[in-house]
């Protein structure tokens, strides 16, 4: 990855298409938002040549899961070959701020969602009760005084759905985030009210893994990191992959994921119960929220799985504070038991050995998709925003 070229390209080329403020679902929102689409160029980003070609059919996809999860797998860890990506992507984003104007300097949180979701993860509202804000992270952050920028990662409808094997890889996702962050720090997003005094990154799951990558390649781009649902351990992730069966999205649900848009390198999982297994911990969720998450789920790419091999897991040059927040029963990053896995000396803390402060919280009874568990606002969002204040962020 070449960070200097990202910056240089951005300085030359910033094109935006701004849309008017969206009509929000709930009428009682205490915050206001503007959705927009912005073009982000990336230049000469190193990617991994996938050891697996695009599966021709569902049988081959299952066999790829077999190969990746094989004991002492060579296929998944053999000698790598590299390629590079130069492209410009459309990114669907949304900037939100408190409705009540403030004279305080702007502190911005940039929110990176995980696999299976789009940026609506950050302002989830139950379809049966849009005034219920218990799952709405943006509501919590804006009422704590922050501005937020959420975006659909590449591969997520609204943003460019690029090639799932050669392009939609973690290193490219990090480069897109670096590009978006560079614009945000300079106050150059469409209609951005001002240059922020602090730019904080909050991630969920794969989105948190991207923050480790960001902190590694561009350690001065963030003033603080909040990593939710990430332990910096990779060994439990195969449990997620197994739960998906490598189900090709256009086979599982051709209406939502037509093969004209989603080739066989886009995968999902079979049912809401597979979703529950990987993302939710019983009984701390509302079944109607699980059903809604399943009905609005987004596919993930084979490139995002195999490309993790070249995503940095250490960011020794990152000096700002870091906060890990994990559900006690997180399957994907803790094998359903985070107790004892995240703390001083753990791979999570060691990743940030140059940081001024690394802290962690385990949320009792919660699973992987923490924002969708009961009272996420009280159990997760209040600790996050209190931690930010405690760090002067
Ligand atoms: C592209 O990246 C590769 C690997 O990081 C590097 O060796 C090469 O010099 C870069 N090329 C350009 C034109 O920046
Ligand atoms: C990028 O990869 C292509 C092959 O896909 C190669 O021809 C080219 O030399 C590479 N460019 C850089 C700058 O590494
Ligand atoms: C909707 O959510 C609000 C806020 O949590 C709650 O007060 C209200 O009772 C809920 N309404 C219904 C119909 O469940
Ligand atoms: C992408 O989103 C647009 C706008 O919401 C929608 O019309 C379209 O059907 C979606 N495409 C796919 C492939 O899901
Ligand atoms: C980005 O959006 C523009 C305008 O809608 C479209 O013409 C272009 O093809 C898109 N580019 C990509 C890479 O998706
Ligand atoms: C794509 O889907 C259409 C409609 O479901 C189907 O007729 C067609 O055979 C599929 N194409 C491929 C290459 O699988
Ligand atoms: C997220 O995905 C759902 C389901 O496709 C869709 O209804 C919603 O509009 C998407 N949100 C964004 C911000 O793309
Ligand atoms: C950390 O920064 C030093 C000095 O700029 C540099 O030499 C080193 O390569 C960086 N380490 C990493 C892991 O990026
Ligand atoms: C979780 O792991 C810890 C050790 O780190 C152990 O003490 C505890 O019993 C485990 N919890 C469950 C529910 O098995
Ligand atoms: C942090 O860890 C790296 C190895 O990733 C090591 O080179 C470096 O010396 C460590 N820094 C400190 C301050 O311990
Ligand atoms: C939500 O969690 C907070 C923090 O634990 C707690 O104070 C509050 O009472 C909870 N609210 C509900 C409705 O359970």
Structure notes:
With 393 residues, this protein is α/β, with parallel strands linked by helices. It contains 13 helices and 12 strands. Strands 1-2-3-5-4-6-7-11-12 form a 9-stranded mixed β-sheet, with helices on both faces. A 3-stranded antiparallel β-sheet has the order 8-9-10. α5 (206-217) links the parallel β6 and β7. The protein is globular and about 60 Å long. The two termini are 29 Å apart. Residues 157, 256, 258, 261 line the site of one 2-acetamido-2-deoxy-beta-D-glucopyranose.
Summarize the structure.
The chain is an alpha/beta fold. The chain has helices spanning 3-12, 58-68, 137-143, 170-185, 206-217, 237-244, 249-252, 272-279, 287-295, 302-306, 331-334, 347-350, 376-390, and strands at 16-18, 31-48, 82-98, 107-112, 147-151, 198-204, 225-228, 247-248, 266-268, 300-301, 322-327, 358-363. The protein has a nine-stranded mixed beta sheet with strand order 1-2-3-5-4-6-7-11-12, with helices on both faces. Strands 8-9-10 form a three-stranded antiparallel beta sheet.
